[in-house]
Amino acid sequence: MSLYSSCTSAASSAGSSVSSTTKTSEIDCLLAGAGYRVRSSDLRHVAQRLERLDAAMVNSPAEVSQLASDVVHYNPSDIASWVDSLLSEFNQTASLPSDLPELPELVVGPVLNQTVLAEDAWTDHDAPQHQQLNNQFPVMTAMEEDSGIRLVHVLLTCAESVQRGDLAFAGSLIEDMQSLLARVNTSCGIGKVAGYFIDALSLRIFTPQGVGFGGGVGLDAAYENEVLYHHFYEACPYLKFAHFTANQAILEAFDGHDCVHVVDFNLMHGLQWPALIQALALRPGGPPALRLTGIGPPSPDGRDSLREVGLRLSELARSVNVLFSFRGVAASRLEDVKPWMLQVRPKEAVAVNSIMQLHRLLGSEPSRNSPMEMVLGWIRNLNPKIMTVIEQEANHNQPGFLDRFTEALYYYSTMFDSLEACTLQPEKALAEIYIQREICNVVCCEGSARVERHEPLAKWRVRLGQAGFRPLHLGSNAFKQASMLLTLFSAEGYCVEEKEGCLTLGWHSRPLIAASAWEALALPDANSPATAPGIFVNPHSNPPVNSL
Amino acid sequence: MVVPLNTWVLISNFKLAYNLLRRPDGTFNRHLAEFLDRKVPANATPVDGVFSFDVFINRSTSLLSRIYRPAHGEEPQINIADLEKPVTAEVVPVIIFFHGGSFAHSSANSTIYDTLCRRLVGICKAVVVSVNYRRAPENRYPCAYDDGWAALNWVNSRTWLQSKDSKVHIYLAGDSSGGNIVHHVALQAVESNIEVLGNILLNPMFGGEERTESEKRFDGKYFVTIRDRDWYWRAFLPEGEDRDHPACNPFGPKGKILEGIKFPKSLVVVAGLDLIQDWQLDYVKGLEKAGQKVKLLYLEKATIGFYLLPNNNHFYTVMDEISAFVDSNC
């Protein structure tokens, strides 16, 4: 049963696109407006199954508490599959239309003119979902101070002049902003981050183009970046969330496999892997043989930092009796990696792990044989059991400078706000520098120097769908564990949200980082028609493995 | 007795999900609740003439509200500095909205409530402030009321929300537990001399120790059971208190006297298939007996949640009434 119209359409989480394949059934648009996806033609059937589930719950109250505590829930927007998965817990046969109860008298079918309403409201709902790509505002404190408001005005005016090419005028505004900055509360919100944006604009205006900032140019920069990354990891939960969520999904994907191979697109200090190694060690039935291939930039002055990380992980693996081997692949850019370097073996289950790396492949213009297409192509050819993708949930790759600047201002102001809660030093200070470098790259750089080309989840869904991947849903267990992880942090503002099988971590109501998992659709052979992207079945037919 | 199919699916889905969340020991599966709840972010880009943004009412208690404003002109995008631009019309009603969920469920950013608040902006030409109050059982009485009170004070002190007469024209609105909060915040407002121009209570959540006729008649018939109502009161009320506590039963044996005080006029919407309707009707009678101005809108064939989807006549009736109610003063 196909549950999505072609996910190759842009933007929408309410399926607003018209599918390129012939689809006769549309999503009920009123339920879509409430956050749910049910095909209009399915409504009656779903209603009957809800009735059936209700009866089952009434008859076995003991099972209800088990449903709540033990069962993993997936993608609640899809009511049909949610109800069916719960019904299957009651050991009832999945579909026996003749057994389905009659709906209570009080229900009527769709209101007659609803289809007409649907057409109009369809486009209405198209708009809001599309707009979600842009302008997700940070939570603000009331900006009572005139200086704060004026500062933002000037920042945006300055960015707009830069976009117009009027660098002289833009330059004159820098001084104004610096004096305004002196009068603003710089301890939180916009005030805090404004200083960094003023600096970034300065650099862009007064320094010749083409100089890379925060792009990791040069070997020393790579080492420095590792240090900053580590402090960012400690100061706030974004990277831990990424690791945690990805590991959970990888663990589940590796269930039943004896030879597994993880390809990490950005090894750094390998902070993600001890937890996975330990979880695999504790797997019922024993651990698999684990290979880890870590990709990272070449090290300066003859050090082989990749190998050093590999050695440390080997020691850990040995101490918990997990057969482990490591391979480092040094590459300055992801597009320089060739699949043969990974030496994937035929019978092993492969997991590809990309934490904030894929966006670096986005060139300014889409073109044939773009790095993105090439890399996604070879990933797919590896036929991985899972690809975990964690990306910043932001639209920092818009062509217009002002749009990009504005979005970044809000995004990073929210991120800085969340950092306020951290009291660890020097972690916090260095984490701020880490973020500042990202800001610099987004604001100052162009062309190949601009690597921080973040795009929102909705765009990644489209891109990955088109490249032949389908989503593997992250469920309520991953959600719960991520939420519990967050309670370790004193700050109360972090929140995990579920969105159609993906999880986001944000500060208050603004998602900042999105985690998703994918598997490669079977490669079409010469004789069969191409499989349409977006068709999937519930992949989690096996009970989930014990969590980390 | 008619409920459109999609409404039925929506409310049944809630009912079943909520059954999973309430534990017999009185605790609540908050993680699963947050996982299942459908949410939507604020959006400063106007959609159908409305844009929204989130603010802190109180940073130290993390009390957030989502503000909805009508967009004027053809701005494709609202500048961050303009989010709190002063309102420009002669009179701008500001509706402080408290979402429902029986004190335990939902949030200001729940999709169903985001949709409802956007509609209120349109029909009332108002600014809507949707309060993300603390929920039970983790936060019992009086937390939700305290948060509502904080929101009222915050709204009342925003210069950018003042109409031309330099006053903020405040209305309180809410459904289910939100309706209950409206009453109690209004009471506090009166006692502190803050003027509230009107209360809008949609299927407000009230109760009492007694089992009324409607409770017995409709128990389990239209999505709601006496048992679940009891559970939510036990989760919200202070431990050891019964349902005649004034929070639950404002005109009961422990209720406050409302005679002679300048309580706001009220619009109370009661659904004829709601099992707690007798309590809601008692509330209306209580207001009348105390000499307070109240309009009852009784919708005989409506179930709970009828106002969540715009696919039935009751929905449009109620929206028209709300529009007239908020307009009549201005």
Q: In a few lines, what is going on in this structure?
A:
The complex is a heterodimer of chains A (548) and B (330). With 548 residues, chain A is an alpha/beta fold.
Query: Assembly state here?
Result: heterodimer
Low-confidence stretches of chain A: 1-23, 93-98, 110-138, 140-144, 526-548
Strand content of chain A: 5-15%
CATH superfamily of the domain at 239-393 and 454-476 and 515-527 and 543-547 in chain A: Vaccinia Virus protein VP39
List the chains of the largest interface with their residue counts. Answer: A-B, 76 and 62 residues
| Major sheet details of chain A | 9 strands, mixed
Number of strands of chain A: 10
Distance between the termini of chain A: 32 Å
Structural class of chain B: alpha/beta
**Biggest sheet record of chain B:** 8 strands, mixed
Number of helices of chain B: 9
Euclidean distance between termini CA atoms of chain B: 37 Å
CA radius of gyration of chain A is 25 Å
Task: Write down the CATH topology of the domain at 239-393 and 454-476 and 515-527 and 543-547 in chain A.
Answer: Rossmann fold
How many E strands of chain B? 9
Low-pLDDT residue intervals, each spanning 5 or more residues of chain B? none
Features:
heterodimer; A: 548 residues; alpha/beta; Rossmann fold; nine-stranded mixed β-sheet; disordered C terminus; B: 330 residues; 9 strands; Alpha/beta hydrolase fold-3 domain-containing protein (chain B); gibberellin binding (chain B)
Protein described:
The complex is a heterodimer of chains A (548) and B (330). Chain A is α/β, with parallel strands linked by helices. Chain A has a domain at 239-393 and 454-476 and 515-527 and 543-547: Rossmann fold (3-Layer(aba) Sandwich). Chain A contains 17 helices and ten strands. In chain A, strands 2, 3, 4, 5, 6, 7, 8, 9 and 10 form a nine-stranded mixed beta sheet that branches. Chain A is globular and about 75 Å long. Chain A starts with 28 loop residues before the first helix and ends in a 28-residue tail after the last strand. The model of chain A is unreliable at 1-23, 93-98, 110-138, 140-144 and 526-548 (pLDDT under 50). Chain B is α/β, with parallel strands linked by helices and 330 residues long. Helix content of chain B is 34%, strand content 17%. Chain B contains nine helices and nine strands. An eight-stranded mixed beta sheet of chain B has the order 2-3-5-4-6-7-8-9, with helices on both faces. In chain B, α8 (277-289) links the parallel β8 (265-271) and β9 (294-299). The radius of gyration of chain B is 19 Å and the shape is globular. The mean pLDDT of chain B is 94. At the A-B interface, α1, α2, α3, α4 and β1 of A face β1, α1, α2, β2 and α3 of B. β1 (107-108) of chain A pairs parallel with β1 (3-4) of chain B, so a sheet runs across the interface. Chain B: Pfam families: Abhydrolase_3. Chain B: InterPro entries: AB_hydrolase_3, Carboxylest/Gibb_receptor, Lipase_GDXG_HIS_AS, Lipase_GDXG_put_SER_AS. Chain B: Belongs to the 'GDXG' lipolytic enzyme family. Chain B: One of its GO terms (biological process) is raffinose family oligosaccharide biosynthetic process. Chain B: It is found in: Nucleus. Chain A: Belongs to the GRAS family. DELLA subfamily.
